[in-house]
Amino acid sequence: MEQLAKDLFEIGAVKFGTFKLKSGIASPFYVDLRVAVSYPRVLRSIAALYLECLQDFSGAFDVICGVPYTALPFATAMAVQGDLPMVMCRKEVKDHGTRRVVEGAFTQGSRCLIIEDVVTSGSSILEVVGALRAEGLKVDHAIVLLDREQGGCEALLGQGIGLRSVFRISDLVGTLRNLNLLEPGKVDMILDFIRTARAASDVKRPETNVPSALPVAASSSSPVRDQLYSIAEKKRSILCVAADVQSTKELLGIADAVGPHICVLKLHADIIQDWTTDTSRRLRELADKHSFMLFEDRKFADIGNTVVAQFSAGVHRISSWADIVNAHAIPGPGLIEGLRHACAISGRMIGLLLVAQMSSKGNLIDERYTATCLRMAREAFPFCIGFIAQERLDPTGKLFVMAPGVQLDSKGDQLGQQYNSPQYLLKRKGVDFLIVGRGIYGSEEPAKAAQMYKELSWSVLHG
Ligand SMILES: O=c1ccn([C@@H]2O[C@H](COP(=O)(O)O)[C@@H](O)[C@H]2O)c(=O)[nH]1
């Protein structure tokens, strides 16, 4: 990606200065990827990066379609490089001949993945989606080379189209700054422009009836649950560290230090003061390096339509990097449906935990509420894979429990947190995974503390 960022800059596909846009607004950057067709090496790299993104959609589409005109050669290069069937959507329909809108081989119900070069408002993609759907093709996903981050992603999401981008403009600008191709002063100005433009974009989503992107298959297994158990088994760790720190540097530092000892890293992205897309990118790199999963402890608790946006949009774009998220059951099944929908169109496998019990003193959850959570979670399996709770809830163990409120050296804090020991929670309460926060990141040597909690909890369970 770094090389392509450099190439795009060098061939003038991305320019920085002052440019008057169609809307009359002065933009500090200008993107015109048409020039890439004159550089075969760049064209090949573009196709390769699209194809990399495409791996997440394997089996989820039958044909690809480039949005005319700039993305047409990109889609063609992908089709050739990746051996993929393609269709073409006409911009203008001829008044003679076959008058076909969609050219190429497809059948009613063929699943089509859209390829676009740049997205701003998402309107060009939606035009093509409309034409394809009218011809009987199913369209749920699009991949774009560059997202200008001006509301297009959210607008598409509102129409049931999940957008995956190779670059966001802020990533591209960050990469060029790291390569010393952009001065820091200019970078700040560009990022400011992006933020303002994003805030000004009129993002509207349908109030109800978000169309289902993928069929909700009744399944007896969950890939996210399977992955978690496979990591736990391999690393002999049922430990989740709660990294409740407030800067990217501390977060990445803790993740790297405790990484070898954990199966999950839990975070609250909204307490990280300097969160950017770079934070999630680097966090994912560490998750891959040490083989652990990322759990965003967002505790969604609103109506479905709102949680779709909280999950997929905003600064944190949780659905683009988290493996596990959690939610309160209080708003009802619409919340779970919204998250499941947003997860499906993100093209990523994400598991949901319901907060069925809490560790804090005086919390309002009672047995009836917890029992309702169990029923809702069963109905939502395999998207819902378990609970945040203090004891085993599903006797079959299919829906597992991650228990917070774990520390050896303390019984609680001044604000109502209550701690139990790993022995008590694992042996007496039958929980499956332990969440330890201050007991690890607040210790002098987090890596050593993590290793100790990991070994202790594993030996409690396995003798
Ligand atoms: O009932 C709950 C639900 C979530 N938490 C979260 O777990 C960690 C615990 O941190 P400690 O430092 O070990 O107290 C924290 O992120 C909470 O938000 C919880 O404690 N109880």
Helix/strand layout:
Blueprint: H1 2-10, E1 14-20, E2 26-31, H2 40-54, E3 63-66, H3 71-82, E4 86-89, E5 102-103, E6 111-119, H4 123-134, E7 138-147, H5 152-158, E8 162-168, H6 169-178, H7 184-200, H8 223-235, E9 239-242, H9 248-258, E10 264-267, H10 277-290, E11 293-300, H11 304-312, E12 324-327, H12 333-346, E13 351-355, H13 367-380, E14 384-388, E15 400-403, H14 422-428, E16 433-436, H15 438-441, H16 446-462
Parallel strand pairs: 3-4, 3-6, 6-7, 7-8, 9-10, 9-16, 10-11, 11-12, 12-13, 13-14, 14-15, 15-16
Antiparallel strand pairs: 1-2, 4-5
The chain binds ligand LLZGTKA7.
Binding site for substrate: 244, 266, 359, 417, 437-438
Pathway: Pyrimidine metabolism; UMP biosynthesis via de novo pathway; UMP from orotate: step 2/2; Pyrimidine metabolism; UMP biosynthesis via de novo pathway; UMP from orotate: step 1/2
GO cellular component, one term: chloroplast
